[in-house]
């Protein structure tokens, strides 16, 4: 399918701004540019309750060293105990914060009827791999431990993330598999990064679309201390030798996205391991489209698929 007309209009809008490529900026400047010019989300929905909290990791308890992890908890109207979703934002492990995922988390909370806990994990390059994975796992562990206090149901905890956040969700799911205290009922991976590799067909075809190959190369360079880290399954989940005993998955991909093939390959690996998987490729769309509801109508379609999948997963428990 050709590029969707609304995506073409978005490209025209961005072209008029003449913004510099993020990979040509220092990380701090890239974060500022992304925060001011990169939000294409629709207006945030009201949610019954939104609370900001800070948790501490026992592994990093010294102030100023990453021992504190900020969370934003969205609680919809509904009778307790409610199901829960732990959400990790995108941004190439370098950009993003709680604000970038705010609109999406509000929508999911309301339409899936679940408490959403959004995680502000440490960013690279100040904090290299596996710092983000550690924070996301700690937050997931915390949600499992304090779900009753949150008004949640420990039997119904799911995990989700987009782009780099999808990578972190997949990694945390792998880690949680051996932890009896964390039982995940579903994973939603939205155009996730799954492999430190730039040689797929989608990389060759779409290297200069919204998420470019130079940008993704830059993100990986910021995230990893050495290329050898990219061989670790917690950085490249596609390289995990064993994908059994993981929760069912919903995987969203975009046709015009360099990450399309590796995301779909991960879904196929899960399927081969006996995991129920739904993989939906949205034709004519680009990386990040689910968070671009202010410009792209298809974002609402994908969000409906996500909330429907979560609702079904929660009801099955």
Automatic annotation (TrEMBL):
Keyword set includes Hydrolase: yes
GO molecular function: hydrolase activity
One Pfam family named in its UniProt record: Abhydrolase_3
Alphabetized UniProt keyword annotations: Hydrolase
Key word Hydrolase present: yes
Location of the active site: 163
Domain Alpha/beta hydrolase fold-3 span(s) in chain numbering: 85-290
InterPro entries found in the cross-reference section: AB_hydrolase_3, AB_hydrolase_fold, GDXG_lipolytic_enzyme, Lipase_GDXG_put_SER_AS
PANTHER family referenced in this protein's UniProt entry, alphabetically: AB HYDROLASE SUPERFAMILY PROTEIN C4A8.06C, ALPHA_BETA HYDROLASE FOLD-3 DOMAIN-CONTAINING PROTEIN-RELATED
Family statement drawn from the similarity comment of this UniProt entry: Belongs to the 'GDXG' lipolytic enzyme family.
Protein name, per record: Alpha/beta hydrolase
Organism: Planktothricoides sp. SpSt-374
Species classification: Bacteria, Bacillati, Cyanobacteriota, Cyanophyceae, Oscillatoriophycideae
């Amino acid at each position: 399918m050709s590029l969707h007309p609304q995506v073409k209009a978005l490209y025209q809008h961005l072209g008029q701004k003449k913004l510099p490529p993020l990979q040509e900026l220092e990380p701090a400047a890239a974060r500022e540019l992304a925060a001011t010019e990169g939000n294409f989300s629709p207006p945030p929905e009201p949610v019954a309750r939104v609370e900001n909290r800070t948790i501490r990791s026992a592994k990093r308890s010294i102030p100023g060293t990453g021992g504190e992890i900020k969370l934003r908890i969205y609680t919809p109207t509904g009778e307790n105990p409610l199901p829960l979703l732990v959400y990790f934002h995108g941004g190439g492990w370098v950009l993003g914060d709680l604000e970038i995922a705010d609109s999406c988390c509000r929508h999911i909370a309301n339409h899936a009827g679940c408490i959403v806990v959004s995680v502000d994990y440490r960013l690279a390059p100040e904090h290299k791999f596996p710092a983000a994975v550690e924070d996301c796992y700690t937050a997931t562990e915390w949600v499992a431990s304090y779900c009753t206090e949150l008004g949640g149901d420990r039997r119904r905890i799911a995990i989700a993330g987009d782009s780099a956040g999808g990578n972190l969700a997949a990694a945390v799911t792998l880690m949680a598999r051996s932890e009896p205290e964390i039982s995940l009922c579903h994973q939603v991976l939205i155009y996730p990064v799954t492999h430190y590799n730039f040689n797929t067909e989608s990389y060759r075809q779409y290297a200069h679309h919204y998420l470019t190959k130079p940008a993704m190369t830059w993100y990986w360079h910021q995230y990893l201390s050495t290329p050898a880290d990219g061989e670790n399954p917690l950085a490249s989940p596609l390289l995990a030798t064993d994908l059994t005993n993981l929760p069912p998955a919903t995987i969203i991909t975009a046709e015009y996205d360099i990450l399309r093939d590796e995301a779909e390959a991960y879904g196929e690996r899960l399927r081969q391991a006996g995991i129920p998987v739904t993989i939906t490729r949205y034709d004519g769309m680009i990386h990040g489209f689910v968070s671009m509801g202010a410009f792209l109508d298809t974002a609402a379609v994908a969000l409906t698929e996500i909330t429907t999948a979560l609702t079904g997963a929660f009801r099955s428990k």
